[in-house]
Amino acid sequence: MRILTLCLTFTGLVLTGLAAPVSAQNLFSPAVKVNEQVVTQYEVQQRARFMTLLRAPGNAQEQALKGLIDERLQTAAAAAAGINPTEEEVQGGMEEFAARANLTAEQFVKALASGGVAAETFRDFVKSGLAWRSLMRAKFGPRVQVTEDEIDRAIAQTSSKGGLRVLLSEIILPANTPQATAASQKRAEKIAQTTSLSVFSANARRYSASPSARQGGRLQWMPLSNLPAAIRGQILALSPGQVTAPISITNGIVLFQLRAIEETDAGAPKDLSLEYAQYFIAGGQSDAALKEAARIKAKVDTCDDLYGINKGKPEELLQIDTQPVSQVPQDIALELAKLDPGEVSTRLTRNNGQTLVFLMMCGRTPELGEDVSRQTIRAQLVNQRLQSYADGYLSELKADATIVYP
């Protein structure tokens, strides 16, 4: 069962709005029978007062009766499985619950007593919850499996608040020789002055060394957080149509033109960790090397598939790294920004253009803050799934139960 959120102030408890008292002669009359187990009017009254003091939402009387019916079914199921919390476990559960109000169990019980709630009511509430949770772990725990991908997705959903995505065009000018660098730098400075989408697109078709040149340099929407931090800053300073200052990368000079920017509902984490693979192919941008890259691309879906491609070959041909985006070489980071997991780029070279880089995006993971751990996220996901199983099992118990109201 879910433990109620504790929001109780234990100074000057006011008992207004509590359930109407039950007359003494009716205190122990049945409020309901659950599989021949009686829930008394006194128990309902006590639970209603307890829930009111805890500021629990909803009608206290109705919620008290519902909760006690559920607990009768839960404790019976736990007992049938041989689960009965020890006195030490119950006392520990009471201490843990009371600690949420920065009190000891003894102090908590005294505060409840001042509000007309017996210690036994609190104790039964805790014991029932312990028994049910123990049963759920025993019955469904082995079924609950949480993968690393599921943890990554959970972190991505919870570690950020709102985000931006950008629509860019790019031009990548060659800078693999001193002469090419000088010519490209001069051209880049001129292109950087344009604010025309059509002029930038024409320059991309004419001069860009990127595969996007065929589309006039136009890229798809991408999260701003995919880009290196320094480039994010430049992009955010632009208005649509404006172009970044020339950005130097290995063997090239890059310019980005902002076409559009918009907010997204999905969060964008401050920092990303990128996992990516580089498979090195001799021949640079030669037809033979590009043909080999196409052959490999047709055979792989994930980075792990590259281990099979490299089997029997020198280990140094394949390099798989996981790094914060701030530590990824800028030319690689810019290519990865355009890729989804499993996608490939063959634009980059190494060794003065003699080696083609088969670059594959493996995945992106938000960097965890100091107060977040993967173990914590895993535990949360496990508990969520156990709760789902518990809800389903309780519904089955209710469907099979005989519940009689006087």
From TrEMBL:
The PpiC domain covers which part of the protein? 163-260
Where does the signal sequence lie? 1-19
Record key words, sorted: Isomerase, Rotamase, Signal
For this chain, one GO molecular function annotation is: peptidyl-prolyl cis-trans isomerase activity
List the PROSITE patterns hit by this protein, alphabetically.
Answer: PPIC_PPIASE_2
Give the protein's recorded name: Parvulin-like PPIase
